[in-house]
Design a protein that fits this description.
Layout (H helix, E strand, L loop, with lengths): L1 H9 L6 E5 L9 E5 L7 E5 L9 E5 L7 E9 L6 E11 L4 H4 E8 L10 E2 L3 E4 L2 E9 L6 E9 L5 E12 L6 E8 L8 H15 L6 E3 L13 H4 L6 H13 L2 E10 L2 E9 L5 E6 L5 H4 L11 E3 L4 E4 L8 H9 L4 E6 L4 H11 L2 E6 L4 E4 L5 E5 L4 E8 L5 E2 L3 E2 H8 L14
Parallel strand pairs: 13-14, 14-15, 19-20, 20-21
Antiparallel strand pairs: 1-12, 2-5, 3-4, 4-12, 5-11, 6-10, 6-12, 7-8, 7-11, 9-10, 13-24, 15-16, 16-17, 18-19, 21-22, 22-23, 25-26
Length: 433
């Protein structure tokens, strides 16, 4: 009985609110103004005229100082390494050029000696709530943690002001794993009579090699033309159309998502398209290849114009196609929108650049190719599985909830989002001034 009571007393109190504060009327004693040095101290004050419904908020102003960097800090004691916490806060900003890096909420973990324990955890995701923006993040305290500085600040925005309100920190249970069974097919049909035969070979390979428990199945680029002597104009079709109808039947029967590259025709316009079909056999979305190589343009294809992200029942996925891998923007755009996984039908492309796209964005990258390998890659660039022979399938179970930390930099997926400088203009390519 005593041992059971002792265990109960030392267990983390999940759901315990470590603090919750709003409606600031005066400078709170448990918050302090903070900056790295006096010369970079912004103005940190309580603004009684601005709030989310109470009487005031914690405000920070850049004081016309381009070097101003800092704001409000609160020290919270009684944490342990390995615990999970949820930080939540609302902010409203004015005259801030790039809120992703200039308006920051983070947890700066401290050990018992008052030194930094591990790397700070940034709150990367923002959701609009009327005139305010909600920031929320669930984070695990690193080993050696005894307390944490909750820091809300404004960075290098000389004319900017940010108001913070409804701030809370609470203990939470460890998040559940988000395991996904991924299957990617390596197949290159030969001497096919046309679109229907090539597609049927892919469907037959799925039936033969893909496990029944697959959550998502990836096929290569241009499955409706590979192995044939047909032109793109010969095989281009509407979406929905014959190929998506055939794949939808497979997706519905297997209760799995399917992604495949086909050639789409809409009126007189043709696209190189990747289609996402859901577990019910419905078309959940499509992506039209943005970066077309010269060779495809000369065959009459038109480039796409945006990078959509799709919500599935296991997480957010983004799609890329082949030549997209030579450019940083497609993968970055998908990661910026919260994609956990990028599925890439590909004919052939640079393997080093593909690895870089996974690493620099902290996402799983899944490929299905002909002249490019077919593999499942984790956010560190490690290939978890690879299908080396035509007619085979690579499979792996990945956990989308797993955090990948760099030894000296911390969790780079979220850190990159908070440090990416989208406000610095990039010169027009090829324009010599």
């Amino acid at each position: 009985m005593r041992l059971g009571l002792l265990c109960f007393l030392i267990l983390p109190l999940y759901g315990e609110v470590l603090f919750r504060q709003s409606a600031f009327e005066a400078a709170p004693a448990d918050w302090s103004a903070w900056s790295h040095r006096p010369e970079t101290m912004p103005r940190a004050f309580v603004d009684t005229q601005v709030s989310r419904g109470g009487r005031g908020s914690l405000a920070i102003n850049g004081l016309s100082n381009v070097a101003a960097y800092g704001g409000w800090r609160k020290h919270v004691k009684g944490l342990q390494g390995g615990e999970w916490v949820r930080l939540k806060a609302f902010y409203k900003a004015e005259s801030v050029a790039a809120e992703n890096w200039q308006v920051v909420a983070r947890l700066d973990w401290q050990n018992a000696a008052g030194k930094r324990a591990g790397e700070p955890a940034y709150v990367p995701w923002t959701q609009r709530q009327g005139d305010w923006n909600e920031l929320q993040s669930e984070t695990q305290a690193p080993p050696g943690t005894a307390s944490v500085h909750v820091e809300l600040y404004l960075a290098n925005a000389p004319q900017g002001t940010v108001w913070w309100d409804d701030i809370s920190l609470e203990r939470i249970p460890p998040p559940a794993a988000r395991k996904v069974n991924v299957a990617t097919v390596n197949l290159r049909p030969r001497n096919s009579s046309g679109r229907e035969e090539s597609v049927s070979q892919f469907i037959a390979t799925i039936a033969k090699t893909v496990p029944a428990n697959a959550d998502v199945i990836l096929l290569p680029e241009g499955i409706s033309i590979v192995g044939t002597t047909k032109s793109i104009l010969d095989v281009a079709e509407s979406i929905p159309g014959p190929t998506t109808q055939a794949l939808s039947a497979v997706a519905k029967a297997r209760k799995a998502y399917i992604v495949a590259g086909i050639y789409e025709k809409e009126g007189h316009v043709m696209y190189n398209t990747a289609v996402l079909i859901d577990r019910n056999g419905d078309i959940a979305g499509k992506y039209r290849k943005v970066y077309l190589p010269r060779e495809e343009v000369e065959k009459g294809l038109t480039p796409g114009t945006h990078y959509p992200v799709f919500q599935t029942d296991f997480g957010k996925v983004g799609l890329m196609i082949c030549y997209d891998v030579f450019f940083a923007e497609p993968a970055r755009a998908l990661a910026n929108q919260g994609a956990d996984m990028i599925l890439m039908p590909i004919w052939g492309g640079d393997e080093t650049l593909a690895k870089a796209r996974a690493i620099e964005n902290g996402v799983f990258l899944i490929t299905s190719g002909y002249d490019h390998p077919t593999y499942i890659m984790d956010p560190t660039g490690e290939r978890l599985a690879q299908a080396r022979e035509s007619g085979s399938t690579a499979t792996a179970t990945v956990d989308l909830a797993k955090q990948y930390n760099w030894q000296w930099l911390g969790e780079m997926r979220t850190r990159r989002l908070k440090e990416l400088r989208v406000d610095v203009a990039v010169p027009t390519p090829g324009l010599i001034r």
